[in-house]
Amino acid sequence: MMQIALIAHDRKKDEMVNFAIAYEHVLKPHKLYATGTTGTRIMENTSLQVHRFMSGPLGGDQQIGALVAQNEMDLIIFLRDPLMAQPHEPDIIALLRLCDVQGIPVATNVATAELLVKSLERGDFAWRELVHKYKPGIEE
Ligand SMILES: O=C(CO)COP(=O)(O)O
Predict the structure, then answer these.
(1) How remote is the CA of residue 133 from the centroid of ligand 1, in Å?
(2) Number of folded domains in the chain?
(3) What is the mean pLDDT of the chain?
(4) What is the mean pLDDT of residues 26-33?
(5) Which of 89, 38, 95 is nearest to 65 (CA)?
(6) Does residue 138 fall inside a structural domain?
């Protein structure tokens, strides 16, 4: 079971909901996390259970970043709005930076998100089970 974070800026939330509906069967077996509003929207529109953190502008990106820093996230789908300034831009950059620090796959648009989820379905992330095994804090 992988630990997956789903995050979308406001003008990308419909796209995230459609993505979650389309790949519900692939995402279902995994432990899902999201920033506050994104998580609510996904749960309203699918049968997926999502652990919700704070809303992004209130620190949700940083909460997810903390798990990335501890190497406890396996995959991040972060549908960013490239055309609208965000008040918490530093938090967004920090999260993406931590993904690069740990080498965690992160999709920032839905085209890449689809490729990653297809990889997930195919079992390409199975090696991450080894990381989990040696990190007892992570749920199996
Ligand atoms: O702002 C966000 C990510 O940077 C997303 O936060 P919400 O899911 O709470 O809207």
Answers:
(1) 30
(2) 1
(3) 95
(4) 98
(5) 95
(6) no
Please give the helix or strand (H or E) that residue 4 lies within, else none. Answer: strand 3-8
Ligand 1 pocket: which of 6, 14, 38, 96 to mutate (most atoms <8 Å of CB)?
38
CATH of the domain at 62: 3.40.50.1380
ipTM above 0.95, yes or no: yes
Binding site for substrate: what residues are annotated?
9, 13, 35-38, 55-56, 88
Range of the domain at 82: 3-133
How far does residue 134's CA lie from ligand 1's centre (Å)?
Answer: 31
Residue 116 lies in a domain: yes
Residue nearest atom 9 of ligand 1, based on CA coordinates: 55
34 domain-assigned: yes
| Residue ranges in 1-123 assigned as alpha helix (H) | 13-22, 24-27, 36-45, 60-69, 89-102, 110-122
